[in-house]
Hints:
The protein is mainly α. The chain has a single domain, classed as Formate dehydrogenase/DMSO reductase fold. The protein is 73% helix and 0% strand. The protein is built from 13 helices and no strands. It has helices at 2-26, 41-64, 75-96, 105-108, 116-143, 148-181, 194-217, 224-258, 261-272, 276-297, 301-323, 335-338, 352-376. α3 runs antiparallel to α5 (116-143), α6 packs across α7 (194-217) and α10 (276-297) runs antiparallel to α11. The longest helix is centred in the middle third of the chain and has 35 residues, at 224-258. The mean pLDDT is 91.
Amino acid sequence: MKKIFYILWGIAFILGCIGVAQRFMYGHELANYGNRVVWGLWVAMYIYFIGLSAGAFLLSSLVYVFKIKMFEKVGKLALITALVTLLCALLSIWFDLGHMWRAYEVITRPNLPHSMMAWMIWLYSAYFLLLVLETLYAFRIESGKYDGDKLKSYQKKLGILATIGIPLAIAFHGGVGALFGVVAANPMWHSALTPIFFLVGAIASGSALFTLIFAFFWDNKKGEYYQNMLKTLAKIVLVAVLFDVLLEWAELSIALWMGSPEHTAGFRAMLFGQYWYVFWIFHLLFGVVIPVWILATKKNGIAIGWASLLVAFTFIGVRLNIVVPGLIGEKIPGEASAYIQPRLTYNYFPSMMEWLVGIFIVAFGIGLFYLGNKYFKLTKENNSVKS
């Protein structure tokens, strides 16, 4: 199985590098978005990975803030998962930028306090630094090289950082939702529920990713700890997914019940448009119905792992259903036929170059996590936090 994994990862990485080379050589020319559908696959991947990071980080707070003993052995695993997925998110949005090499100017020349994007980038920067520091302190405590006052000092600092990290993680991912929610010209996004929807989705997808890692890669699958931890994680994923569906139902039912045609256009495109299968099959069937049934009825690690894999993988469909349907509707009736040009179309499907860059980002994240697990033994049961 390891050999198969290495071969598949190598193929994915090589194909991804081809896409990255095309992105550097041709810019956005090979991408299928344009002047009307301005965001595509990479933006969806960006908010997807950001959600994974926030969800994994909030799980780590169960160790370092709330001191729940059951989660002590997986604290560093949650931190590394959050860090790797954050890097994947930043890489995704970096590829989407028109002038990639000017990304630093959002920090050096921010339009504060008026720009939601500037707030978001500053929150990312603070979150990234906090996550790095927290990970360093966690590994120092775990190393066994420190004791006495030094150890207590590190534990105190780690607790403070983790406590600050909870509102920061909520703020930065809520900020992503607010970035969409403040766009008054797009009725599908312009809702006070949007930031909450993003946060709940982060908990659902992030906890699912963490659960599949634990289910498949934890070294001691026969111990009592593995079984108890798996049951707890399964309950977290189940509740989070059901709550996310509840919010989704509230958003859709209210919008479609008495909403104006302009307000409901994006939702109708999502439910009944050309990509209807992303919602009904990819998201609802494989991402909700089947995993919920498995999580509610099955107790073994393999079944829970596969259910969590379905939730984590199909959640990219949820993010695509936020980004694309909100952009493919005409803002003015007849606008689509007023000017005929490939970059002025309201149709969008990712190009091969976009898919290849997406594959590269996923392969990059898997490679980072593999190296982290190999050298730091993140999935070893004796890898516990000393308190």
